[in-house]
Structure formats: C-alpha cells, structure tokens
C-alpha cells in the first residue's frame, strides 16, 4: 500500500468518525439541549445546596456553642451567691442532663454538619455523667462507627472509660489495644497505652503496667506520654523539694 493510499484511508477514517459525531449530534440535538439544561439546573441546585448547607452549618455551630456553654455552667449549692445572670446547677448530674438535651437537639437537627456530629459525641459523654450508661453506650457506639477518624477515636476512648465504670475491663482492654494499633491525632497511641497501664494498676497488676510505662519511656522519651511514663516509673517522694537548677 503506497503512501498516498494510506493517507487517503486515514482521511476517510477521520471523516467517518467526524461524520458519525455530526450525525449523532444532529439526531440527539434535542437530547443535548435537554441535558445541557439539566446540567445548568444541577449547577444552580448545587449552588443553592451549598448555600443552605453553609447556613445550616452556621446555625449548628451556634446551637452547639449554646449547648457547650450550658455544659460548662458553674455548680452552686442552693442559697450560694452567684453573679447576676449566671446560670448554675446544683450538681454535675443535673447539669449533664440539661446539656444532654441540648446536644441531642443539635445532633438530631444538624446531623450532617460537623457541629452535629460533635454534638452526638457530647451527648454520649453527658449520658455517662448523668448516670445513664445504656444510652451512653448506644450513642458513643454510633459516633465510634462514623467516618470521622478523630471523633471515632474520642468516642472509643469514652467507651473504654464507660466499660471500666461498669465492670467490663476486658472490653476496655480491647478498645485500648485497638486505639494503640490505630492511633489518630485526637487519641495518639501513647494516650491509649497510658490508659491501659492505669487500668492494670487498678486491677492490681503493677508489673503489666510497668511494662507499658517502660516501653513508652523508651519509645517517646521527650513526648508527653513518655514523660508521664517516666514519672510513673520513678515517682517523686511525697513532700520532696524540687531539685535546684
């Protein structure tokens, strides 16, 4: 096949391809117009959706701030003088119950926002403080199973504490080991290991606790977990004066 023939074939193939495109466009002109209109509508819908989401995110952040402020309200005994306009609670449990309702409202109304997800976590914490372990466990498990790794780790850490409070040390140990194997910025491995060592101390297993402290001291000598571990291994005598520099 000579050069001229090859060029002619290539040209014919290009023409066929182009012609096919033209024919398809002609046959589907109405469809293209419709698709173009749909795309235009979708762009508008997405823009409106983004505006609404941002607006709801702002509303969620405001509502979460109010719930958190309630949770941080001071405690005051009946009859105790407090500054005018300052809301107080007679006990931590009552404060937790009041804040819990606010956190749940934020979580239910704005569950798709960051503040809504964070509110669900705080709802779990306040359930614990209010003395409602079953509700706390259910809520924290929901957060622990979410896509946000940092929030999931915090929920797991709270679950481990709940397990310890309710006499389920074996489950707490499983959670601490999982957090150690899958650290996050919110719960580094050292934090989980310190909690595990503390659990062993409460179980009267000092040797297991010391083993963890020694490992942390070697692996993270200058980090916060390593420094705490070093103090645990070599506690200062009670009443000892600090060494002069």
Write a structural description.
- The protein has 10 helices and no strands.
- The chain is mostly helical.
- Among the domains are: 61-76 and 87-144, no CATH class; 149-235, Serine Threonine Protein Phosphatase 5, Tetratricopeptide repeat (Alpha Horseshoe), CATH 1.25.40.
- The longest helix is centred in the N-terminal third of the chain and has 43 residues, at 29-71.
- The model is unreliable at 5-18, 20-26, 40-52 and 241-245 (pLDDT under 50).
- This is Putative negative regulator of RcsB-dependent stress response.
- The chain crosses the membrane at residues 32-53.
- Residues 38-223 form the Ancillary SecYEG translocon subunit/Cell division coordinator CpoB TPR domain.
Helix and strand layout, with pairings?
Blueprint (H helix, E strand, L loop, with lengths): L2 H25 L1 H43 L20 H18 L4 H16 L3 H12 L4 H17 L3 H13 L7 H14 L3 H14 L4 H10 L12
Helix pairs in contact: 2-3, 2-4, 3-4, 4-5, 4-6, 5-6, 6-7, 7-8, 8-9, 9-10
Keywords: Membrane, Transmembrane, Transmembrane helix
Protein name: Putative negative regulator of RcsB-dependent stress response
InterPro entries: SecYEG/CpoB_TPR, TPR-like_helical_dom_sf
Query: Distance between termini?
Result: 94 Å
- What multimeric state do the chains show? single chain
Low-confidence segments, given as residue ranges, are: 5-18, 20-26, 40-52, 241-245
CATH topology of the domain at 149-235: Serine Threonine Protein Phosphatase 5, Tetratricopeptide repeat
The count of strands amounts to: 0
What CATH architecture of the domain at 149-235 would you give? Alpha Horseshoe
Main sheet record: none
- Structural class per helix/strand content? mainly alpha
Tell me the helix content: over 70%
What proportion of the residues form beta strands (DSSP E)?
under 5%
Please tell me how large the radius of gyration is: 30 Å
**Annotated CATH homologous superfamily of the domain at 149-235:** Tetratricopeptide repeat domain
Anisotropy-based shape: globular
CATH class of the domain at 149-235: Mainly Alpha
* SS field, number of helical segments: 10
Order of helices and strands: HHHHHHHHHH
**What's the mean pLDDT score?**
81
Keywords: Membrane, Transmembrane, Transmembrane helix
Organism: Edaphobacter modestus
InterPro entries: SecYEG/CpoB_TPR, TPR-like_helical_dom_sf
Transmembrane segments: 32-53
